[in-house]
Design goal:
CATH topology of one domain: Leucine-rich repeat, LRR (right-handed beta-alpha superhelix)
Strand order of the largest sheet: 3-4-5-6-7-8-9-10-11-12-13-14-15-16
Number of strands: 16
Oligomer: single chain
CATH class of one domain: Alpha Beta
Largest sheet: 14 strands, mixed
CATH architecture of one domain: Alpha-Beta Horseshoe
Order of helices and strands: EEEEEEEEEEEEEHEHEE
Strand content: 5-15%
CATH superfamily of one domain: Ribonuclease Inhibitor
Helix content: under 10%
């Protein structure tokens, strides 16, 4: 019996067991309660999407951590609002055209190389495609209601083809292969932008993103804090593991609460003094910079920014 979260009012699955080519057990979906709104079959060793036709009211279908290779047999699930196929063996986005009410789609941790097959998903609000093999951003401009797009840990070389996503508030592009921040001008509603672990050497082209509250650019090759004049609402600024030597050009960030600058090259306390202008600053990470070797490191930081409640990983006393 396979029913990871079985209860009288939930659907489950019973499985005649089979074996795949590796000799591992593969299970089959069998619907127990056709009236269920939510079906959770995570960690089920399910090898194929099938036998789902009785689910006439299903809204949420969770199939994380299975052995599914192909998206198929979902045509009858028109009521579906959330579909999770995280961590399977899927190579192609396909056969989703009938899911016109879908709001959340998670295909992270699969083997997908191309973004496609999404045109009919006009109600989609959140799309997760992290940890795949995608090399190019495309075929998403049709998703006018999209507010969150997760494309981290892929092989993307350029930020492009996002112009139509004007409702987007959260964009995650960390751990890819692009070297320049560009083509974000139309995303005026972005509040969170993550560009960690790329090949960026300059902060630029963010002037239209005036609603940003979170900006993550750690683990790049940035040498200077600059071009943030229009981003006055930023509360969290992550520049960890770059090559910055001077803390500058942040006095105007009056909403700044968290400033992550660990593992850079700041050696001059005179530039650290610039943090005194950020009255709401609560957390600062500066460990891994030359200044942290000063025996008075924590005391000096607290004197500079009296509002601090945390220095590095330790709370202030």
């Amino acid at each position: 019996m396979l029913s990871p979260n079985s209860s009288p009012d939930r659907a489950g699955a019973d499985t005649p067991e089979d074996q795949n080519k590796d000799g591992k057990t593969v299970n089959e979906i069998m619907v127990i309660d056709p009236d269920t709104l939510e079906l959770d079959l995570n960690h089920g060793r399910i090898g194929k999407l099938e036998n789902l036709e009785p689910l006439t009211q299903i809204e949420r279908l969770y199939l994380r951590w299975n052995l599914i290779k192909k998206i198929e047999n979902l045509d009858t699930l028109v009521t579906l609002r959330e579909l999770e196929l995280y961590d399977n063996q899927i190579v192609k986005i396909e056969n989703l055209n009938c899911l016109v009410n879908l709001e959340i789609l998670d295909l992270s941790f699969n083997r997908i190389k191309e973004i496609e097959g999404l045109d009919n998903l006009q109600n989609l609000e959140k799309l997760f495609l992290s940890s795949n093999k995608i090399s190019k951003i495309k075929n998403v401009n049709c998703l006018q209601k999209l507010t969150m797009l997760e494309l981290g840990d892929n092989k993307i070389r350029d930020i492009e083809n996002l112009d139509g996503l004007t409702s987007l508030t959260h964009l995650y592009l960390g751990k890819n292969k692009f070297s320049k921040i560009k083509n974000l001008d139309t995303l005026v509603n972005l509040t969170c932008l993550s560009l960690q672990s790329n090949r960026i050497t300059k902060i630029e082209n963010l002037e239209n993103l005036t609603k940003l509250t979170e900006l993550y650019i750690s683990e790049n090759g940035i040498k200077k804090i600059e071009n943030l004049e229009k981003n006055t609402l930023v509360e969290t600024l992550d520049l960890a593991k770059n090559q910055v030597k001077v803390i500058e050009n942040i006095a105007h960030l009056q909403e700044l609460e968290e400033f992550w600058m660990n593992d850079n090259q700041v050696s001059d306390w005179n530039t650290v003094q610039n943090l005194a202008s950020n009255a709401k600053l609560a957390t600062v990470y500066l460990e891994g910079n030359p200044v942290d070797r000063d025996p008075m490191y924590r005391r000096k930081l607290k004197m500079i920014a009296a509002s601090l409640t945390q220095i590095d990983a330790t709370l202030c006393r």
